[in-house]
Specification:
By secondary structure, the chain is an alpha+beta fold. Helix content is about 20%, strand content about 35%.
Length: about 100
């Protein structure tokens, strides 16, 4: 199995509505690590690492939650995590899913 990293930029009415808090709570149900944070342009950035299927289910759960209607668009970028980096001995080793 190969781990992946997904970065999602959410556009819409996504700040000041509990988006980060809800995303963090949804993450508890999935084997993902990473963060969610507000960006200065009014968007929200989510970065998560895990198995690809788990990440896809996590992103879909965010869409299916009460947040879905607030999202106007998503920019999704995938990246494979190399074997060396999957051992958590690099700068992108997250210990859970947090609000940044």
């Amino acid at each position: 199995m190969s781990r992946k990293e997904v970065k999602v930029i959410y556009v819409g009415m996504v700040q000041g509505v509990g988006f980060r808090w809800t995303s963090k709570n949804i993450a508890y149900g999935y084997e993902v690590v990473g963060y969610v944070r507000n960006l200065s342009d009014g968007t929200v950035e989510l970065l998560a690492q895990g198995e690809e299927e788990e990440l896809k289910e996590f992103i879909q759960a965010i869409r299916d939650s009460g947040l879905g209607p607030l999202i106007r668009s998503e920019e999704i970028k995938w990246r494979k995590i190399s074997v060396e980096n999957s051992s958590c001995e690099h700068e992108k080793c997250y210990k859970g899913f947090n609000i940044a």
